[in-house]
Amino acid sequence: MMVWYGGHMGWWGYAAMGIGMVVFWALIIGGIVVLVRLSTGGTTAPAQPPATAEQILAARFARGEIDEAEYRDRLAALRG
Fold this sequence. Notes:
By secondary structure, the chain is mostly helical. It has a domain at about 50-80. The chain contains three helices and no strands. The longest helix has 29 residues, at about 10-40. The mean pLDDT is about 85. InterPro entries: SHOCT (IPR018649). Keywords: Membrane, Transmembrane, Transmembrane helix. This is SHOCT domain-containing protein. It comes from Mycolicibacterium vanbaalenii (strain DSM 7251 / JCM 13017 / BCRC 16820 / KCTC 9966 / NRRL B-24157 / PYR-1) (Mycobacterium vanbaalenii).
């Protein structure tokens, strides 16, 4: 009953409300994070290793950015 304090809360009441609000929102946000992780399987795709120079060169040749002669020259330079 607040009659004992003249109808006003003491400092402890405000502190308890502040802490309670932080705990409440932490539980809400934590629950959302857990639900999202459970709904997506909780796993991420494994990281792909970076492409090697030969793979990049082969991709450029496949896209038609370089011709066969240039591809062979650059491949020989990479391997040599």
